[in-house]
Here is the input.
Amino acid sequence: MGVHRHRGTPLGALTPICNACGVSLCWDIAVEEYEEAREFWDRWVCQDCREDAGQERMSLKGWKQERTAPAVTEPPPARTYALKGMRPKAIQQTDGKRR
Ligand SMILES: [Zn+2]
Here is the structure.
C-alpha cells in the first residue's frame, strides 16, 4: 500500500497508509521523504496496529540507521577483541606525550 494522495493532501506531500488496516493517516510526508525511504513507507504499519501486535512503533530513524550500518552482520566477539587490543595502546601514547 504505502502512500497516496487524497483531497486533503497538500501539494508536494503524500499521505501514508497503514499496511495492516489500510487506514489513511491524518498527517503527511513530503514526496522527497517518501522517495528517500520508499521501502520503509511501503511496509509501514500504524501505531495502533503495531500496539495490537505487541510491537514497538515503527521508526524511520531506526530504519535509516539499519540501512546505513552494514556492520550489523559483523560477529560481535571480533569487535570486542579489536577494541580491547586498541585501548591500552592509545593510553600509552597520550601518557608518553604529556610527560
Ligand atoms: Zn493500522
